[in-house]
Every structure is written in structure tokens, then in C-alpha cells.
Amino acid sequence: SVNRDLKKEIKEAEKMLTQIDMTRIPAYELGMEKGREEGKAALLTRQLSLKFGSLPQAVDQRIKGAHANELATWGEKVLTAKSLDEVFL
């Protein structure tokens, strides 16, 4: 019947949609990168707060505006820094 054929086509279309490689979609890749940066920023903020106490708003804004490579560098420096300023030198 027509209804059965239509259901079969819908199932085939659904199967095709689930097989799309999302990592090949530029917007998806951009979203994933942004998510990773936000995670690194949140971790760095937590580490700095635990080590040095409440963070000035300027530091918080600097972290939120930073790129992944800056966040990684600061994340390493927080391990040995004696002051908040040393992290950002």
C-alpha cells in the first residue's frame, strides 16, 4: 500500500540523517571549539580562585576573552605562580 511505502521511505530518510558525519559541518566544528575554550576558561577560573581567592573582574574578563592557546599557557603557569600577576606575565 501507499502508506507502507511511505513509512519505508521515511525510515530510510531517518537512517540517512543519522549517518551524517557532524564533524564535517563547519558550524558544528566551530561550536565544539567554542565549547572547549569555555571549558578551559572555567577550569582556569576555578584553579585561580582556589589558589588566590576571589578574582578581580578584569581577570575574569581577560580569561573569558582569551583563546585556547592563552588559556593553556595560563593553566600551566597557575601551577607554579606565587601571585595572580605571575600567571599572566
From TrEMBL:
Name of a matching Pfam family: DUF4351
Domain DUF4351: 33-86
Protein name, entry field: DUF4351 domain-containing protein
Source organism (scientific name): Candidatus Kentrum sp. FW
